[in-house]
Design a protein that fits this description.
It is built from four helices and three strands. It is an alpha+beta fold and 74 residues long.
Length: 74
């Protein structure tokens, strides 16, 4: 059976998200909040892992970082 990249995609918890992006916990949630002046519709959406637990797909986080680099170079 062939495994796809989705099957191998890691889920990053907040600490790993912070380390990977350099974005703090509060800044990450501000980027997700449409009412915030720091709202970023391109920021990866979290996935629910449990009643009080969320994570972010590593591939989506890496794609967001790459898009920031492309925007800088444009």
């Amino acid at each position: 059976m062939k495994q796809t990249s989705q099957m191998l995609d890691k889920v990053l918890r907040m600490k790993a998200l912070n380390e990977t992006t350099g974005v703090s916990r509060s800044a990450a949630y501000n980027k997700l909040d449409p009412a915030s002046k720091y709202f970023d519709p391109t920021f990866p959406k979290p996935i629910r892992l449990g009643a009080r637990t969320v994570g972010w797909r590593e591939s989506e986080v890496e794609a967001w970082i790459a898009s920031r680099a492309l925007a800088r170079n444009a």
